[in-house]
Structure formats: structure tokens, C-alpha cells
Amino acid sequence: MDLRHVPAARDRGWYLALMAPNVKGPNYAWLDPSRLYCHPQGLQDCVADLLQPFRGDAIDLVAGIDAMGFILGAAAAAVLQKGFLAIRKAGHLCVETLAQPYTDYSGRQKLMEIRTDVVAPGLRVLLVDQWVETGGTMRAAIELVERLGG
């Protein structure tokens, strides 16, 4: 699909056709959304659709999970006019952090970190990731936000 082309009829989810097919073989069960992110209208419509279930919810902050959750999370934060917090894999933040162990999609044990000076008790945080394979990174992010009172 031409990255400059916007269909006249933009049915819900039209932008999914922008995702590049899997070329890495049967061990990879995902499509690459980076081409979708390059399409201005596709990205806008995708974020609008992703946020639809949360319209009317009180959201104070949007957090994206390392690393691809940063793209959709930052875009969602901009649309909602909220701040954005990056929840990182261990070792990438140079500030005081709180860590949470998790098991990734490959079964490896890892650590997720959050800075400790942003989330305060009662803060309502919308967590965003590109996809959730096993739930390990999302569970770790939820635990980190909740440990800080969010």
C-alpha cells in the first residue's frame, strides 16, 4: 500500500493493511507495524481506535512499555494531552527506579523498571504496549505502577 494514499472509505481497521507481512518464518507470529506508524492518517486512525474504549475514563498519565509501546503510548498521550512515562527494561534509566521481575515471551527472566518520582498514590495510568504475547511485560508494568500507588 502506498504510504501517501488514504482510502476514500476508511472503515474501522483499514490501516491494518499497512502492516508488513512476516518474512522471518514460522517462529514469528506477528506482523511488523512500523509501516503503519509511517502513515500519518493510518497512525491517527489506529490511535483513535485504540483509545475508543477509554473515552470518558479519567486518565492522568500514559505509560508505554519498552520499547515498541513507546510509539503508541506517546501518540496516545499526545492525543489525550497527557504526559508520557517510559517503563523500561532494566539498566536503561539513570534515575532512581523500582524494579519488577518478569518472564518474557521466550521464557527468559528479566527485570522491568520504572522511575520512582512520577507515579503518586491515586494517579490513574493508562498502560500501552504494542502487543501482549504472554502478558509478562504487562503484568510487570501493572505491578510497578501499583507498587507506587497508581
From TrEMBL:
GO terms for biological process: purine ribonucleoside salvage. Residues 57-149 form the Phosphoribosyltransferase domain. Keywords: Cytoplasm, Glycosyltransferase, Membrane, Purine salvage, Transferase, Transmembrane, Transmembrane helix. InterPro entries: Adenine_PRTase, PRTase-like, PRTase_dom. The keyword Endoplasmic reticulum does not apply. It is an enzyme of class 2 (transferase). This is adenine phosphoribosyltransferase. It comes from Nothocercus nigrocapillus.
